[in-house]
Design goal:
Elements (H helix, E strand, L loop, with lengths): L6 E8 L6 H14 L3 E6 L14 H11 L6 E4 L6 H11 L3 E8 L12 H7 L1 E5 L5 H6 L1 H6 L3 E2 L13 E4 L8 H30 L3 E7 L9 E6 L3 H17 L6 E3 L6 E6 L2 E6 L1 H7 L1 H6 L7 E2 L1
Length: about 300
């Protein structure tokens, strides 16, 4: 059958963790340049080359993908998934026997494309399409795949009968500087911030339950490399200070802050609890007045970052 009589379908596989407007932007380019009838987004359950855990669950990534692509009827969020891409392509070729199959990836994936399981089979049984990604041009040109197969590269995506068998298409695009990695980093920061806020609330409650006095929380975010928060409180005696510090450290460890440790063991009028992003000072009132940490930070920070 002449390829001009075949429908064109595309496979766009990835983690989509999370899906974003960059994915939609690339999809529109694929649909337009390749004249695709349908573009299937394949949300992978697990990338065999990636050991990191996904931020979102597979189910959540599918839901988000459907939501962000809902305005483009040619994009289909597929439930098909295989461990390896060549298996996925074979599945589509068997299901859509009267269609020409295009496998779509970003240039950022070309660096390790030669390590993909049976990658040669991919470029033999379907048409590989690579779209440029901002910041990856040099890595793309230096890749093993490009060095070995650049002679088969075509820039004319309108060619219906693409040949030879190993031919692949390169689409140049200025792109959108959006990446799932950057989005995840921001999400992790937000998650960390929310968790810290919850822990600070718990720290305050623990200190209050242990009858610590004059509890002050100082927000140090973006102001100091010491920690994200500093907490200052007072105990009425050396025994009280010791009790507060031990009980607080024990509770923090139960919250998952395993590296939490107490410093100032030899001091009777001061203890410091180092919980990485949170530093807690427990002073005897006279010692606290002598150091006057609140005053020191008050001169540096705006008042809204100091909570009493």
């Amino acid at each position: 059958m002449n390829k001009s009589n075949l429908d064109r379908i595309g496979i766009f596989s990835g983690s989509f963790d999370p899906p974003h407007n960059g994915h939609v932007h690339i999809s529109k380019i694929f649909l337009k340049h390749l004249k695709l009838k349908k573009l299937f987004w394949i949300v992978s359950k697990k990338n065999p080359l990636v050991k990191k855990k996904y931020y979102y669950s597979y189910k959540k990534r599918v839901i988000l993908s459907k939501e962000i692509s809902k305005n483009n009827k040619k994009i289909v969020i597929s439930s098909y998934d295989k461990k390896y891409s060549y298996q996925l392509i074979n599945l589509f070729r068997n299901k859509y026997k009267k269609s020409q199959v295009f496998f779509l990836i970003g240039s950022d994936n070309i660096k390790y494309f030669h390590k993909w399981k049976k990658f040669l089979q991919i470029i033999k049984v379907c048409t590989l399409v690579v779209i440029s990604r901002p910041g990856y041009y040099n890595a793309f040109k230096k890749s093993i795949f490009f060095k070995n197969y650049s002679k088969f590269m075509k820039k004319n995506s309108s060619d219906i009968n693409i040949s030879p068998q190993k031919a692949w298409i390169y689409i140049s695009d200025k792109g959108k500087k959006i990446s799932s990695s950057n989005i995840k980093n921001r999400l992790y920061k937000i998650k960390k911030k929310n968790n810290l806020t919850k822990i600070i609330d718990k720290v305050y409650q623990i200190l209050d339950d242990n009858k610590a006095q004059n509890i002050v929380v100082i927000d140090l975010k973006n102001k100091s490399s010491i920690a994200e928060y500093m907490v200052i409180a007072s105990g009425t005696s050396s025994r009280h200070i010791q009790s507060i510090s031990e009980n607080t450290a024990q509770k923090l460890r139960s919250f998952g802050l395993d590296d939490c440790r107490i410093e100032g063991q030899d001091s009777e009028d001061w203890k410091l609890i180092d919980a990485l992003d949170i530093v807690i000072h427990i002073f005897h009132p006279e010692k606290r007045s002598s150091y006057n940490l609140e005053k020191m930070w008050e001169d540096i920070l705006p008042k809204q970052q100091i909570t009493i």
